[in-house]
Design brief:
By secondary structure, this protein is mainly α. It has 13 helices and no strands.
């Protein structure tokens, strides 16, 4: 870790007890799922972790909405955004605005919502425990995602994203009972939360650097495996508008495979690729 990550930590905002209680409740329900284990429920959890994580968050919220690294028809964009909202990581305007701020002011202790300079636990989850108004008040953060905020669909989804858990829970119960509900909703949510948060925390601490960026972003193989390619974070910070995160043959990027498939099907266009000077090996 570089020495510039030991700067003084600004004062915290008041603690968010609603988030704390929600966070604890979801984790307790995930633990309770151990008494309802079945291999089919575990398989459903794997599927939903990929569908909501790789397609909803990594492909949708991140590469499509935050960076506009490729384009898809509006109906498909909206469908993918719904998958992102089902991941329980916030509405699309909130998520995109925060991520754009992270790139605009990477590791700045004041302007980056989950700055790594404030320590591992801050960048991993404490930024949610101590919410700062400029990142959590709609009127303030919406300014950084005006392309989404001007659309009624995204305003609605940003406000009511948690309600989508109800039809998902009912569907899982119909398919497989309480085992599917506990594993498919709560185990999946906890696993996906921490997988995503690892990109904010560990990939600014450990791993190798292909590019000498101004921040401390790193490429970390195990984080990339957990997040379907997002762990090649130094590549991403060097070229955030590029749709492909893994650039070398060993840098497996499952989310890129999905984008490539959409392109082959004629559903993805204007796909931003790495510059020719960064040749693939």
């Amino acid at each position: 870790m570089s020495s510039n990550l030991s700067s003084p930590i600004p004062s915290y905002s008041p603690i968010s007890w609603p988030f704390i209680l929600f966070f604890i409740a979801i984790h307790l329900l995930a633990i309770a799922a151990l008494w309802f284990f079945s291999w089919t429920a575990f398989a459903m959890t794997l599927f939903l972790h990929w569908l909501l994580g790789s397609i909803g968050i990594c492909l949708g919220y991140h590469r499509l909405l935050s960076h506009r690294s490729f384009q898809v028809p509006q109906w498909l964009e909206y469908a993918i955004a719904i998958l992102g909202a089902l991941a329980m990581q916030g509405g699309p305007i909130f998520w995109v605005a925060g991520h754009r701020l992270h790139h605009a002011y990477t590791e700045d202790e004041i302007k980056d919502p989950y700055s790594a300079r404030r320590g591992f636990w801050w960048s991993h989850m404490l930024w949610l425990v101590y919410p700062q108004p400029e990142f959590f008040d709609y009127e303030q953060y919406a300014r950084f995602a005006p392309d989404l905020a001007k659309q009624p669909f995204y305003r609605w989804l940003n406000r009511y994203f948690l309600l989508l858990q109800l039809p998902l829970g009912i569907l899982l119960y119909v398919i497989g009972g309480w085992s599917f509900v506990l594993w498919g909703m709560f185990v999946r949510a906890v696993w996906l939360w921490h997988s995503t948060w690892f990109i904010n925390s560990v990939t600014h601490l450990w791993g190798y650097r292909t590019f000498e960026t101004a921040d401390n972003s790193r490429n970390l193989w195990w984080a990339a495996l957990l997040t379907y390619g997002e762990g090649w974070h130094n590549n991403h910070h060097a070229y955030p508008q590029v749709a492909k995160a893994g650039w070398q043959w060993w840098e497996m990027d499952v989310t890129w495979w999905a984008i490539n498939l959409l392109q082959w099907l004629g559903l993805a266009r204007k796909v931003n690729l790495p510059p020719p000077t960064c040749s693939q090996r």
